[in-house]
Amino acid sequence: MPLAAAFPTLITDIKAAYEDAMTNGDQQNATPDTVIATLSLDLATAIDAYVTSALVTTNAGQLVVTAGSPAAHTGATTSSGTGSLS
What we know:
Blueprint (H helix, E strand, L loop, with lengths): L2 H24 L5 H21 L2 E4 L4 E4 L6 E4 L4 E4 L2
Antiparallel strand pairs: 1-4, 2-3
């Protein structure tokens, strides 16, 4: 999906991570290290989900250069392409 479409989910996930950190910090046995570790993991998970939701699109006509033998060749793509980040 376009990153613009995933942006509201990123905001929701980051807000939830901070709310969880606040709730966890209020618990009697909470330590700063535990709260920070949980917040860090929640933020990393939200950012990873956002970035890997991207749909990458290329247009036809992208330059292609090969280094095969006996000589290098040049050309261009003939169609558009789509893919995702992993």
